[in-house]
Write a structure and sequence with these properties.
The complex is a heterodimer of chains A (112) and B (117). Chain A contains no helices and 11 strands. Chain A is mainly beta. The mean pLDDT of chain A is 93.
Chain lengths: 112, 117
């Protein structure tokens, strides 16, 4: 059974600091990796996707993938109070053709 | 990003009735849509994969006769919860596969909160 593990938190980070979110997955066949942000009572919002080993940067966000270690991370630089949310890591075996397997999410709190 | 809508955003119904939820991709065509369910304090769980013009593929443990899925066009998929019971109360979220611009990602609709009395 495919599993995606995340620390549920809460993870508390001061405003302006770097928030580091981690995720591990069990299926070595996973090919696509996604980070979603979910505010309470709302549906997930795509932040980033990454397919290849290494780093991928988009604005204040950097996703890191290490397939050998089956590890994905998300860094948020210059954290803002509006970044406070639950961050969901999701993986897929076949890109967009397959449904996503989600972790339970990490609750991030940015302290003003 | 891509825009996906759902209707209704919330619904309250009596036990035993059926509820239909619509999922639409507004600015792109989606040959594949997905239906997820999220219980309180839980993560999203994939229920089924919906492909335009063919039968949906259901995840293990999801009753296909209870959760009817129809994907009749490239922009619309529907989920009908038949004979709903209180344990079906949940947050139902659809997503649509977007393959434009060389990417292959899923964008989520705003969700439908179902409460069965």
């Amino acid at each position: 059974q495919k599993e995606v593990e995340q620390n549920s938190g809460p993870l508390s980070v001061p405003e302006g600091a770097i928030a580091s979110l981690n995720c591990t997955y069990s299926d070595r066949g996973s090919q696509s990796f996604f980070w979603y942000r979910q505010y309470s009572g709302k549906s997930p919002e795509l932040i980033m996707f990454i397919y290849s080993n290494g780093d991928k940067e988009d604005g204040r966000f950097t996703a890191q993938l290490n397939k050998a270690s089956q590890y994905v991370s998300l860094l948020i630089r210059d954290s803002q109070p509006s970044d406070s949310a639950t961050y969901l890591c999701a993986v897929s075996s076949g890109g967009g053709a397959d449904g996503l397997t989600f972790g339970k999410g990490t609750h991030l709190i940015i302290q003003p | 990003g891509a825009v996906v809508s759902q209707h209704p955003s919330w619904v309250i119904c009596k036990s035993g009735t059926s509820v239909k939820i619509e999922c639409r991709s507004l600015d792109f065509q989606a040959t594949t849509m997905f239906w997820y369910r999220q219980f309180p304090k839980q993560s999203l769980m994939l229920m089924a994969t919906s492909n335009e013009g063919s039968k949906a593929t259901y995840e293990q443990g999801v009753e296909k006769d209870k959760f009817l899925i129809n994907h009749a066009s490239l922009t619309l998929s529907t989920l009908t919860v038949t004979s709903a019971h209180p344990e079906d109360s949940s947050f139902y979220i659809c997503s649509a596969r977007d393959r434009r611009l060389g990417t292959d990602t899923q964008y989520f609709g705003p969700g439908t909160r179902l409460t069965v009395l």
